[in-house]
Predict the structure of GDP-L-fucose synthase.
Amino acid sequence: MDKQAKIYIAGHKGMVGSAIWRALEKKGYQHLVGLSSKELDLKNQLEVQRFFKHERPAIVIDAAARVGGIMANNNYPYPFLMDNLIIQNNLIDSSLQNGVEKFIFLGSSCIYPKLAPQPLREDVLLSGSLEPTNQWYALAKITGVKACEAIRKQYGKDFVSLMPTNLYGPYDNFDLETSHVLPAMIRKFHEAKINGNLPVTLWGTGAPLREFLHVNDMADAVCFALENTFTDNLYNVGTGKDLTIKSLAELIQKITGHQGEIIWDSSKPDGTPRKLLDVSKMKEAGWQATIGLEQGIQETYTWFLENVDRIKQVKLN
Ligand SMILES: NC(=O)c1ccc[n+]([C@@H]2O[C@H](COP(=O)([O-])OP(=O)(O)OC[C@H]3O[C@@H](n4cnc5c(N)ncnc54)[C@H](OP(=O)(O)O)[C@@H]3O)[C@@H](O)[C@H]2O)c1
């Protein structure tokens, strides 16, 4: 891959986009382009078209989206569906219209049916009903995958979709209402510890099984996708290993040094019973994760402590 190629990273200030930016910079890519949502609102079709005509990137990485955990998805179904549809439609269509050679679309493992056989293979897409709490977000992402697939089929362009499992790492959202489970736990255990080891209340029963990937591994997978031509349109990106939410809580409790009680609020929803990606397709293509969960959480907690006064807390309205 030409290190001078102009690469536009949509969402370069986000957890994933910023990790991709750092990874590409480290690899020597010299022509990276990124604009914040204040500089370019990706919901504004005219502005996005104007930007593409002016910048003419060769490669586009779509890491821009409205992202959130169960509560945010459940309470704000319309923006989770519509904002994501509009953002990705504008990026995908402007890329097609302006000669983009390679487009990497980031989706999410929630695109797969709630009760599909585990681990989730790429070919179970659209074989059953979605998890109701995040179906809005999932439907938008499925549309993005299909738009890239359609472009690949009709125009033979290298538009590829990567489906990451749950991600975590530096620059995550640590707001207790809108964040994902892992950063929420880091913050809850940390705050309970510094307030005298107060009990920590967590949602659900702790029984569901989940998989977590460090965002630097995700960025590495994106670099791999950039530097290689895939034969297919959809690839899962994960570790291929899962653990119960209870085990995750105990691991984070140990790493943060919290010594109080954990209370499970089973009146709150658990979500999908198990969500583990089958990562064999990506492995066959030549990529696999390298950062272990304990090491990754330890590094994230160190980052959290160093940045505790300015952690990101996304509020929805
Ligand atoms: N986090 C996870 O666990 C996870 C898991 C699977 C997949 N993913 C996928 O990875 C991608 C990035 O997620 P993330 O966790 O990095 O999210 P994030 O930290 O919330 O970042 C999202 C980025 O999107 C940008 N954005 C949102 N609305 C925009 C708009 N209207 N105009 C311009 N930019 C806009 C934001 O820009 P500003 O900061 O400038 O506002 C932000 O930089 C998403 O596609 C997500 O579905 C994430």
Q: What stands out?
A: The chain has one domain: 7-307. DSSP finds ten helices and 13 strands in the chain. The domain at 7-307 is CATH 3.40.50.720 (Rossmann fold). The radius of gyration is 19 Å.
